[in-house]
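Hey Z.,

So I finally got round to the zinc ion thing we talked about over coffee. Here's the setup:
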Amino acid sequence: MATSSTELEIVKQLFNTLSDDDKKSFLKSIKNKEKPEKKITFTKEIKECPYCKSTHFKKNGTRNNGKQSFFCLDCKKSFVASNNTILYGVKKDLSVWKKYIHCMIEKYSLRKTAEICGISLPTAFVWRHKILDALQEMQNKVKLNGIVEADETFLPISYKGHHKDFNFPRLAKKRGTSATLRGLSKEQVCISCAINHNGLSISKVSNLGKPKLVNLLNVLANKIAKNSIFVTDSFRAYLKVASDLDLNHIRIPRNKYTCGSFNIQTINNYHSKLKAMIVYNFKGVSTKYLNNYLVYHNFVNFAKENRKDKERILLKHILNNNCISKNINIANRLAVPLLVA
Ligand SMILES: [Zn+2]
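And the result:
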């Protein structure tokens, strides 16, 4: 076929321009992709006692449910492999969690998810945020490199799901006054975002209204590799971000869409998809959970792995990491989760 051989030729020619080291690492990366995916084992590797962190423990028979039990030689407590993971103390079979994660990757509503998994609506809600909290932790390790586009987007503050008698932290401003400056009023939540062309992304609620340098840095500092190509619009604060973080800055001039071969199309699409998910899949989300929906978006909509791989990655992650959120903490989050400088 003409097209595929043309494409092959382009790749061949580009390959020849690489240094010997780059050729090697290119070939290595191709090889890795061809390897069959390893099967996940559902036994968490025990490294330490969950109570006292001691590494002196021994196997201690199995419990009624067939789980391997361990006994700590220092604090004399016994524990099983799932202690401290999301699954601990939850009387649901692993197959229910698998179904649940499938529903998450498909972006099903809580109601539909609860139905498919045979769990209650409140349980479906708590599970969603426990899993997203875990995903948050995974995404905190993301570092962007290569061509990195950054831009912010805005959503109105939402108190969706708050109890009727909840005391809204209303801002000292009369409603409907001139303060509704398109997209930049203090009732607009600013989400600072950066993405690269390899499916990696970071985003967080950074402030209310127009962002300042410090707000952008709170989200972007330590998240972008030095010497990356940093593509932004003409917003002045990004000049300082680029110099603080040692990035090669490409600024798209005001009223232009491109600068040479660079543009901010990928991040614009990222913003549109985020809003589509929030509006169409979830019928709006409360601002207090917005950071969780941002990692949801990063993982489900923007990351390049296919759906099956995402299900595997997510399941493996929650089975192998300690659960950081307790039910009570999920409801008691700040109404507007701002990063503190
Ligand atoms: Zn111990």
